[in-house]
Write a structure and sequence with these properties.
Elements: H1 4-29, H2 37-46, E1 62-63, E2 68-72, H3 78-85, E3 91-93, H4 109-114, E4 118-119, E5 124-128, H5 138-145, E6 150-155, H6 158-172, H7 179-182, E7 184-186, E8 191-192, H8 197-200, H9 204-212, E9 220-224, H10 225-230, H11 232-242, E10 254-257, E11 262-265, H12 290-311
């Protein structure tokens, strides 16, 4: 007769195998609109039949530092990309932005690792904090941890990005001055205020230079925020390839929400409704005078050209 420890060890192995099989089956069945008793049974088995009361995330896997990070940019489409990637069964991600490499570095590496979800073999850990891309200290701090981290940068036309950034800020501060007042250091001369964060973030080439001092270009994937809206499956497919993942997230997972003007995830199995991004996405932008936008576009043109050369990709913003 087997000893109690051997029985427990065998049960753990069976549960682990059942959980892995459940993950694989869910990847194929989660989005076809049909329930699967087999998957449910496997999941229940992996959780110990519901009797132990111990969440599987506390029993299996381990907390690891992220192998991939979405480092930018604010109002580029980072939240959408992360939510789309989380559909993949081999992606585990922190929901909130950790801000470790910009705000909380003093808390130490163990604090950072404890924020991470537990992962099984074959799964990757991710996080996203868009402000990393524009934080001078972030590249050296991240490289000190792991210079092999894969870096994803979601970029968007810097003019529309700046307006979107301003729009978000104005919802939190209704008394905010107009965009055209804030964007100029000297309005009569048409001098753009590069210290205003809404402008500064869009100077992508300048920020990328800081990162390339610590990471090779091969560490980066530049995702088009525009194509993430017009062809989400195509852009997410590129990301899955970059991360070494099987292309599981595909066209069948998306539909376009005409009201919001953004793609949404179709209703997953067991859910009563589709998953769309929150109310903060797809806000109506304020009217900005055409001459103001033109001056801003002219300001960004040399930065865009340099960014195209550095990244090896022409995003067609001009």
């Amino acid at each position: 007769m087997d000893s109690a420890p051997k029985i427990a060890e065998r049960q753990n192995l069976m549960n682990h195998n059942a959980l892995g099989e459940a993950h694989a089956l869910r990847a194929e069945l989660r989005w076809n609109g049909t329930a699967s008793a087999h998957v449910s049974a496997l999941s229940e088995s992996a959780h110990g039949g519901g009797d132990s009361g111990i969440p599987v995330s506390n029993t299996y896997g381990s907390k690891k530092f992220p192998q991939a990070i979405i480092i930018g940019v604010k109002k580029g489409g980072t939240r959408a990309l992360l939510e789309f990637l989380r559909v993949h069964p081999d992606v585990r991600a922190v929901g909130a932005e950790p801000h470790f490499f910009d705000r909380f570095y003093h808390k130490g590496l163990e604090w950072y690792r404890n924020l991470m979800p537990r992962t099984l073999d074959g799964q990757i850990t991710m996080e996203k904090t868009p402000s990393y891309f524009v934080t001078k200290e972030a590249p050296s701090r991240l490289c000190a941890l792991n210079c092999d981290t894969k870096l994803i940068v979601v970029v968007r036309d810097p003019v529309t990005r700046a307006v979107s950034d301003y729009t978000q800020t104005r919802t939190k501060s209704p008394g905010l001055q107009s965009f055209q007042t804030l964007v100029f250091k000297n309005s009569s001369l048409g001098v753009i205020d590069t210290l205003w964060s809404a402008v500064r973030i869009g100077m992508y080439a300048q920020h990328l230079e800081d990162w390339l001092r610590h990471f090779p270009l091969s560490s980066f994937l530049f995702v088009s925020g525009e194509r993430l809206v017009s062809d989400p499956a195509g852009e997410v497919g590129r990301v899955q390839d970059f991360l070494g993942l099987k292309r599981i997230v595909s066209d069948k997972h998306f539909y376009f929400n005409q009201t919001k003007g953004f793609p949404c995830l179709k209703k997953p199995e067991g859910s009563s409704r589709p998953r769309c991004l929150g109310k903060s996405k797809g806000r109506t932008h304020p009217h900005i005078p055409a001459d103001v936008l033109q001056k801003l576009r002219e300001f960004y043109r040399p930065f865009n050209k340099k960014f195209y050369q550095m990244s090896g990709h022409d995003f067609g913003w001009d």
